[in-house]
């Protein structure tokens, strides 16, 4: 029986029952990072949300029947400028930035290609880089020019938007309104204000490649053509799901649709388009000028990655999220309760239906988390949380990691706890308080249990 998964589709404007083109190979693409600087916490939202969707699809269709491509943009104006500032090549810049990005998102519990792909089997998680796909982009551009959907002007190649009658279908924007809004500082070589760049000449000192079929100056591809070429190569001319942030619907995703459909002659590029909502910080838009610009690494210095992931999943992915200290504290307390409840229990063989069902309803993570709260069986609780990429450690391993990270002297802690216990038995409250204060100074929280035992943990 086919899974009853419903996903909100930006293309149709409705929550549609998901039906893959081929249930033997469900294909999904997500727009990944532009690697010129450290990723901010807003960048983490689509990475976490669509990691959850990837996990859910693997659960429903089987790990061998889902292919996920998440691209890396490793050439653009910001990358060129940053590399020039540092006096290094764009590859040196992007390799270093991408490595940091990988460390950050791994800490957030995000699956990586090495977690999924198996030797001797087709890769199920692909992370294509733009600079490795210049040839594919050139072929698409050549095809668009030959079909009359693109033209050469002033050493650029541009997509001819009026050549596509239903341009704007994804973003639901009428063509005349878009044209009116685009008539600001229009490049004189454009036939229409909406026409966008497929190829652009490089400035002196910038990286460049030979243009498609030699029809323009040496340079580099435009941003939009990158995703069209990479998704077509790895997932096919039409695939199941294309995902990204809501800010990408127009112009990026609209332009991807135009390029792909006009090049391949297909009615759609992807059948489902999913978009996550915006993120703000403490009620305000994140901005360097406001001093609230937070990178993923900044957050991870103060909070475990699981806390960050859970805090992100508490809000439905299509809704705006307000990133607050209070929310992180609440997520931390939730995890502490869950880890305390599951102990070192192994997860159940299957995720509880009560947790799975809300996820089948357009990834309703808030409802799924509420169901996890209601579970009283440790194995089922852990299995439900695991489905969301949470409770990945045993309680013992987590405690040991916290102690190691804090640099705490375990023998000293155990000695102080013994001193405190003896003092309390002798009703020497002053000595008990001294031991308690010494433990607190070390960053240790002590809990006296109902069965007479005393446990401790690293305090935040």
From TrEMBL:
Subcellular location: Cytoplasm
Domain tRNA synthetases class I catalytic, residue spans: 18-331
Cytoplasm keyword on record: yes
Binding-site positions, ATP: 288
Any GO CC annotation of this UniProt entry: cytosol
Motif stretch ('KMSKS' region): 285-289
GO biological process: cysteinyl-tRNA aminoacylation
CDD domains from the UniProt entry: CysRS_core
Cofactors demanded by this protein: Zn(2+)
Record-level Gene Ontology MF annotations: ATP binding; cysteine-tRNA ligase activity; zinc ion binding
Catalytic activity, reaction form: tRNA(Cys) + L-cysteine + ATP = L-cysteinyl-tRNA(Cys) + AMP + diphosphate
Keyword Aminoacyl-tRNA synthetase: yes
InterPro entries, alphabetized: Cys-tRNA-ligase (IPR015803), Cys-tRNA/MSH_ligase (IPR024909), CysS_C (IPR056411), Rossmann-like_a/b/a_fold (IPR014729), tRNA-synt_1_cat_dom (IPR032678), tRNAsynth_Ia_anticodon-bd (IPR009080)
Domain Cysteinyl-tRNA ligase anticodon binding: start-end pairs: 411-452
Cofactor note: Binds 1 zinc ion per subunit.
Motif 'HIGH' region per UniProt: ranges: 33-43
EC number(s) given by UniProt: 6.1.1.16
The family this protein is said to belong to: Belongs to the class-I aminoacyl-tRNA synthetase family.
PANTHER family xref list: CYSTEINE--TRNA LIGASE, CYTOPLASMIC, CYSTEINYL-TRNA SYNTHETASE
Protein name (database record): Cysteine--tRNA ligase
Organism: Methylobacterium radiodurans
